[in-house]
Design a protein that fits this description.
alpha/beta, OB fold (Dihydrolipoamide Acetyltransferase, E2P), five-stranded mixed barrel, signal, BOBF_sf, YgiW/YdeI, CarO-like
Length: 117
């Protein structure tokens, strides 16, 4: 019984040591705040943060977003609004990822917030 407990303890310590050596953040890298022109040039699935305004609604969950460098379509799922009301003059920050197709670039928004003016 003592031998079994000792082996189990050694295995636990050994496994923990291996896991600690291989630990760390493995998720996608954030590029920080970028503008629309930069976002349009980025690779698919790149995480981005943009500041600007929503100009108008294009469809069900699609909106036209604008900053000083241009416009881009963004997609905001209904559950990502979290009760936030945004007007055409409100400065916002969106965080999401670039969604590139053959002939279009959009931002799939994960979170949105008003920015103090």
């Amino acid at each position: 019984m003592k031998k079994t407990l000792l082996i189990a303890a050694l295995l636990t310590v050994g496994c923990t040591g291996v896991l600690a050596q291989q630990g760390g953040y493995t998720g996608p890298k954030s590029t920080g705040v970028v503008n629309v022109a930069q976002a349009k040039q980025m690779r698919d699935d790149t995480k981005v943060t943009l500041h600007g305004t929503i100009v108008k609604q294009l469809g069900d969950e699609k909106y036209l977003f604008k900053d000083s460098t241009g416009e881009i379509t963004i997609e905001i799922d209904d559950d990502d609004w979290n009760g936030l009301a945004i007007g055409a003059n409100d400065q916002i920050e969106i965080y999401g990822e670039v969604d590139k197709d053959w002939n279009s670039v959009e931002i799939d928004v994960d979170s949105i917030r008003k920015v103090n003016q």
